[in-house]
Amino acid sequence: MGTCDSTMGLRNTLIVMALLLSVSTIPFSGAASLKSHAFFNETGELPCHFPNTQNLSLDELVIFWQDQNKLVLYELFKGQEKPNNVHPKYIGRTSFDQDSWTLRLHNVQIKDTGSYQCFIHHKRSQGLISIHQMSSDLIVLANFSQPEISLIANQTEKPNIINLTCSSMQGYPEPQGMYVNLTTKNSTITYDAVMKKYQNNITELYNVSISVSFPIPPETNVSIICVLQLEPRKIILSLPCNIEIIKVEGKESEQTEKRVELQEPDRSDEVQCDVNISKTASGNKSATDF
Q: Domain Ig-like, which positions (predicted)?
């Protein structure tokens, strides 16, 4: 009995290997691949769209999916799953939806981005006959975190400068850029900077950040927003960092000093930071304290 089972398993394996060697010579049904999107660590769908006009049962079919490297994700041989023919990287990560003829790939990673093919053969007494094939492209994405602004204490020789960083984490693909908008009552100024990026060697996700410096504006109320540019028409905005500039009349003995105080209270859900800047009305020097 064990010898018979072993022989049958070997026979099935040889059949699948023969199919894999021959599929490249058979044209796919459909001129273009169907594109589907999935998010990192979630589930992606690889459709087969089998019309089944002959109303064939699974017991009459051999169904399998393979990736662009000809590695088998899933095989259903006459209604029975064949995990022994599945590549180890896909073991335990797939489930077959018989109603929609769709293979679901679970816990998708950035490395899973690529092309996939499904193949359906009719098992007849005279052998296997190919009756359906389909190609699909899986695109794996990861949402970047909302950009966060962090103010940096000024320790330079130019204390009338505001320094800040903006960062966003754990996203894919690589964003196009990052910048800061400083908005007053009458204008908006954009400050660009070189975007620093770090890509994790395992997950392939990106962390990005910029550092920006700009002079303290004369207006009394200023709002700073960090912008992460994902695509030409797709951006993510930080919560606003609001700055209130309070002018304080200094004594004559203090006119040589312009004092700037940055006070950053706890963040809320609507505003990332409220900063109060107080400075004397005269003088050409300043100091920054948090």
A: 27-135
